[in-house]
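Narrative of activities, Objective 1.

The group set out to show that a structural description can be obtained from nothing but a protein's sequence at a throughput compatible with the screening campaign. Below is one input-output pair from the validation batch, recorded exactly as produced.
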Amino acid sequence: MAKKTTLKTATLGYRAVGSSGDYTKVMGVLKGLTLTQDTPDATEIEAEFYDTPFDISYDGNPPVMSFSLVNFDLAELPALFGGTYDSATDTYDAAPNAHTSEWEWKLEFQKGNKAFIINKGVTLGVIGKEADGALAFNVTVTGLTHNDGENDRVYQIAGGTEVTFTAVSTSSAGYNAKNPKTEGWYETDGANYRLTWDTEVVTDKTYYTKS
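Output recorded for this entry:
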């Protein structure tokens, strides 16, 4: 695959953690969007008879996305920050206590790789006023580890390359004697594809190749 420089934010959206539905686009204007991750915390494991550490243990730190949301739609605020919205009066009542929510966030780009995805982001919004006078929610999304039933995930980068999955023909030569795992076949749950762990062909199960 070709190397890509990824830049120019296009859209930002969120959806339920682990879901496969559409992302709800953040309707307001994003200002000062940053994406950071601290270097891992290192703990030296001392050896009894040596002056140098026997080993070093590393603990990863989460990715953190921050931005200011201005010119926002009041109706979208409760899902992100708690509280309630009254459509009859077009009024947002904030949550009485600090409120966090967990969402899968997708940041799409105009150039290079297609998107950056935080699989499980704890979302916190704090009201404030920008230097230019605009009322804003200062939003922080902190990535946590999400287990999808097979793997632990923190974030993903989607390259945008078109991928096609084709069902393996059950009538192909030697099909029933093949090892799906070593063949590099995929299976699907109806929403996502993953490499299969099956070492023998399972009857009535459809396998796929990726191209």
